[in-house]
């Protein structure tokens, strides 16, 4: 029997994504229009923070990020802005930049081999965000397409 699945994530990744989704929605519950906005007590990184700023120090995607899925998909971010990897079947080679807390993956072409049992979701990567040791990968429309874990 053939079972189709969409980006099977390990139970740990599912818990992390659930916690991230909950954490992202909780601040919305605190929104109110009844009082004037107060000045923040701490400085949040701006969306245009440079790679030398504090946001870049917190967001350092350099290194290898992988998934235990069939074909062992991975992305490897280099300090010089190059990005290499594999969707588990096809090679990925491009570049990356930071835009605030978002990793922007430049568009790329890859080989188009058909590999049985491999879900080539990573070949659609356009942006990513990092929370701890988990990278959430999104496509060009901003939809989450999968996740990778930082290699130790």
Output mean pLDDT.
73
Can you tell me the CATH architecture of the domain at 47-150? Beta Barrel
The fraction of residues in strands falls at 25-35%
Radius of gyration: 17 Å
Which structural category fits the helices and strands?
Answer: alpha+beta
* Silhouette: globular
Here the CATH topology of the domain at 47-150 equals Lipocalin
Q: Explain this structure to me?
A:
The chain is α+β, with helices and mostly antiparallel strands and 152 residues long. The chain has a domain at 47-150: Lipocalin. It is 16% helix and 28% strand. An eight-stranded antiparallel barrel has the order 1-2-3-4-5-6-7-8. The chain is globular.
Characteristic key phrases:
single chain, alpha+beta
Short description:
The chain has 2 helices and 8 strands; from the N terminus they run H-H-E-E-E-E-E-E-E-E. Strand 4 and strand 5 (102-105) form a beta hairpin. The chain has helices spanning 11-29, 54-58, and strands at 63-66, 74-77, 82-86, 91-99, 102-105, 127-131, 134-138, 144-150.
Show the helix and strand layout.
Elements: H1 11-29, H2 54-58, E1 63-66, E2 74-77, E3 82-86, E4 91-99, E5 102-105, E6 127-131, E7 134-138, E8 144-150
Antiparallel strand pairs: 1-2, 1-8, 2-3, 3-4, 4-5, 5-6, 6-7, 7-8
């Amino acid at each position: 029997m053939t079972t189709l699945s969409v980006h099977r994530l390990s139970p740990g990744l599912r818990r992390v994504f659930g916690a991230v989704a909950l954490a992202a929605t909780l601040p919305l519950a605190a929104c109110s229009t009844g009082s004037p906005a107060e000045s923040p007590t701490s400085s949040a990184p701006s969306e245009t923070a440079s790679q030398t700023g504090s946001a870049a120090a917190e967001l350092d995607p350099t290194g290898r990020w992988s998934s235990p899925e069939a074909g062992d998909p991975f992305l490897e971010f280099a300090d010089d802005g190059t990005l290499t990897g594999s969707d588990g079947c096809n090679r990925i080679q491009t570049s990356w930049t930071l835009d605030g807390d978002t990793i922007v993956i430049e568009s790329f072409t890859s080989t188009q081999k058909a590999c049985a049992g491999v879900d080539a979701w990573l070949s659609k990567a356009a942006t990513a965000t990092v929370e701890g040791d988990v990278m959430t990968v999104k496509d060009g429309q901003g939809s989450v397409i999968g996740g990778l874990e930082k290699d130790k």
